[in-house]
Amino acid sequence: MGMFDDTYRTLAAPSEGLYKEKGSKFLAFAYPVRTTDEVKAHLDELRKQYFDARHHCYAYILGPNKDAYRANDDGEPSGTGGRPIHGQLLSADLTDTLIVVVRYFGGILLGASGLANAYKTAARDAIDHAQIIEKTIDVRYRLHFEYALMNDVMRIIKDFDLKPENQHFDLDCTLELSVRQSLSVRLYDAVANLRAVRIEVI
User: Which of 10, 61, 75, 80 could form a disulfide with 116 if both were Cys (CB 3.0 to 4.6 A apart)?
Assistant: First the structure.
């Protein structure tokens, strides 16, 4: 990732898609997710709700840098289910996103390329129905300082247009800040210039 490339695309809310071919129905469900636990919860829920479906193929990508991903064919011929779904996540440049495609078999075999196309098209339909949002990759800092430095610290926070969180003001003060990655070095330097402020990354 480049120095200022500190945004990523994900879904604002769950969405659905549908593809039908030769009596087979492919129901697609897309979800914003942050963890593999959330992935598992959505999968469990869909398997309960659509318990009579033949397959529940899925793919997900997690993390701002897209470093965790998985594609699962759930018993379909290798590469025909999870991989085409994963491909659609990649081509829409999405992360922190799970897509599950639930298949009801219509009695007519679609063949490997037909299957791959069906899973791909269903996944694409769910993405087309989704509202995609851009989020910033943020760095979190905790600041420690003496009460006397309060005004200086607050001025910097105002300059960077940030919202302090978890503030504790006593003789010794602490607060936490989230700042987008591309501004994090500048913020760190500004705070470090106030000699008596200790700053840590959390």
Answer: 80
The string of DSSP letters for the chain reads --TT--EEEEESS-EEEEEEETTEEEEEEEEE-SSHHHHHHHHHHHHHHTTT-SEEEEEEEESTT--EEEEE-TTSSTTSSHHHHHHHHHHTTB-SEEEEEEEE--SS--HHHHHHHHHHHHHHHHHHTSPEEEEE-EEEEEEEEEGGGHHHHHHHHHHTT---EEEE-SSEEEEEEEEEHHHHHHHHHHHHTSTT-EEEE-
Cβ atoms of residues 88 and 123 within 8 Å: yes
Stated pTM of the model: 0.83
Task: Say what percent of the chain tops pLDDT 90.
Answer: 92
Q: CA 91 to CA 127: how far, in whole Å?
A: 10
Candidates 154, 93, 114; CA nearest to 24 is 114
Express each pLDDT in 84-118 by its tens digit.
999 999 999 999 999 999 999 998 999 999 999 99
What strands lie across the sheet with 24-32, from one edge to the other?
15-21, 24-32, 97-104, 55-62, 68-72
Non-local CB neighbours of 179 within 8 Å, separated by 6+ positions: 138, 139, 141, 160, 162, 187
